[in-house]
Every structure is written in C-alpha cells, then in structure tokens.
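thread: overnight batch results

M.L. [08:02]
morning all. the overnight job finished for the chain we discussed friday. pasting input first so we're all looking at the same thing
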Amino acid sequence: MPERGPTLSIRARGPLAIFTRPELKTERVSYPVPTPSAMRGLIEAVFWKPAIRWHVERIFVLAPIHFIAFRRNEINNKGAAPTREIVENGGAPPVYFADDSSNRAQRNTIALRDVDYQVDAHFSLTEHAGAEDNIYKFIDMFTRRVEKGQHFHQPYLGCRECAAEILPPLDDPQPITDSRDLGRMLWDIDFAAKSTTPLFFEAKMENGVIEVPLNPLPEEVTA
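M.L. [08:03]
and the structure it wrote out:
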C-alpha cells in the first residue's frame, strides 16, 4: 500500500489575511504571500486525521497583492493553565479576564486584502495509521468534504479573525504575473523539541507560484 497520497488541491479566498512575520510580531506585519504552515493549517481545518500528515507543495497567488493598515485590540498576556496540583487535588484555577483594561493594547497591523489562493499538497500516513486506514479512503473523504464545503473548524488566513471561504480548486489556475525574491520565510514550527523551533526557507515567487520544499535545508533551520 502506498504511504504517500497524490497531489490534492484546495482554493481559499477572503477579504483579509495576516501571515505575521515573526521578526515583526510587536506590530503585526504580514508577509506578502501565505506561509506554508498557514496553508497546512487551512487544509487541516477542512480535513485532518491522526493517521495523516499534510505537506504543502506549492501556492498559487490568484489575486494581486494589496496591503491595508489598521489598528486593532490585542491582549498582552495569555491565560495560564492550572497547575498540576490543582488538577490532581482540586482548587480554584487561575483567574484571567481578557477584557481587563490592563491586559489590552492597540497595535498597528499591516494585512493583506482581497486575497485568493490555490494550494497543492499531499498527505502521508503517520505511525498512527491503523490496519483499516489507506490512502484511497482519505482521498475520498477529503474530496467529499471540499465539494460539500465541510470543515472541522472555521478555516482562516493566518489569524483566526481572517475567515477563509473554501472552494473546490480551479482546473487551470491563473496566478498573477508577479515574480519576486521573498527572502527568508517561515516554513513551519517544530513542536518535537522541548521548546518550539521555527523552521525557515528561502522563498521565491515565480509568476505568482511559490514552490515549497518538502523539508527546509539544514542551513535554513533556525533555533
């Protein structure tokens, strides 16, 4: 049985997208195009199982790149999880109010507007795949979910408030005629280590198409 599925595609569009550059996270500034990790998350919102892992192959930019600037409310701190002692023995969990004025801050955001993308990706079977799992079953499930517009949670374009409309892929996508060196871009996050590690790659867009490597090169891994 093959362990790698064929290339599958999905289209996503929306009025806003924010693919935050990690070096500019105090004031959010978006990359001009989606990151592979953001597109993987979008596909996983439509279809994901523990038995499969998605790999983004390429991204088609179908709409011209336009930025928009605005200010929005964000929080300074996140809620803390209960300690192990509280979980095991009971007790009051940490108190957290997101609307507390001391925890709110207005930050500038430079986002993308009126975006439209098509993504090519394939999945591979993981160690969690059971004897009854096979590539063809998952292909059929993914195709049906895309055609029916189903998803596990609202797909989004970089940030959760940037909701994405999911559409069946175009047979012949027509990307924009824009080529540029995008520089070092976030490829994905490695959660296997004790501390999360961002992985980068040197990204280029050729006539509106970004080819994504299967793995970042060793010299492109940044701790």
